[in-house]
Amino acid sequence: MTLQEIYSAFAPIAENVLQIPQFDDTISMATTPSWDSLRHVQLLSAVEKKFGIEIRTRDVFRLTSAEALVLYVQNAIEKGSQP
After folding, report:
1. CA–CA separation, 61 and 8 (whole Å)
2. pTM score, two decimals?
3. Is residue 48 part of a domain?
4. Domain containing 16 — which CATH number?
5. What average pLDDT does range 51-62 have in this prediction?
6. What is the domain extent for residue 30?
């Protein structure tokens, strides 16, 4: 799966959870006021379900930007859900 395909699949989820008009590589927890800790957990849970992966606990706190999340998902898919 390419990065663009992952962004396309990811966008509706992130836009819904974060209540933002557009999800792209400029979105991060630091620049998106609605991306608080509760929505972070909801977003990661939705990503796990959508892509059939498991996000390791130790990685949760570093996945605070669109770019980091998408790269993590791509890596997890390539490695069979264990990045």
Report:
1. 23
2. 0.88
3. yes
4. 1.10.1200.10
5. 94
6. 3-78
Instruction: Identify the pLDDT of residue 80.
Output: 78
Token duo for residue 83: 């990045």
CA atoms within 13 A on the CB side of 14: 23
The predicted-structure confidence for 13-48, as pLDDT tens digits, reads as follows: 999 999 999 999 999 999 999 999 999 999 999 999
**CA separation for the pair 47, 35 (Å, rounded):** 15
Residue 69 is assigned to a structural domain of this protein? yes
Domain-located, residue 31? yes
Q: Is 83 inside any structural domain?
A: no
CA distance 65 to 59: 12
Please state the three-class secondary structure of 2-48 as a single string. Answer: CHHHHHHHHHHHHHHHHCCCCCCCCCECCCCCCCCHHHHHHHHHHHH
For residue 70, pLDDT over 90 is answered with yes
